[in-house]
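Prompt: For my understanding, could you write out one protein's sequence and backbone structure tokens?
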Amino acid sequence: MKKIVSTILVCVLLVSTLFTLVSCGKTLSGEYKDVLTGNVTYEFGMFGKVTKTVDNIIGDDTVTEGKYEFNDAGDQIILTFNDKSETHDFSSGEEDGQKYIKLGIFKYEKVD
């Protein structure tokens, strides 16, 4: 019985440590749509995953999966799609109850 309890406590400790390490870095979650045209959407997920969807006027939508990370200062985001990285100035906030992010000069509002 003591071995089972010890094993469970060790597992809880490991999981707690992982959550602590993950929470140290800046993360995003949710879906953000381009304010200007509405045809570009970024969906940010767990562990630095991002999906970019471009609504094409003619033809099918273009969906690209990649990864994202922030620089040490947290003021730039690095998006990597198909082994090509692009760095953008990053800011986020809330305006009139609507959350948003800015990637460079482009503003994206959170989709509820």
Q: What stands out?
A: The chain has a mean pLDDT of 86. The longest helix spans residues 2-24. Helices lie at 2-24. The radius of gyration is 18 Å.
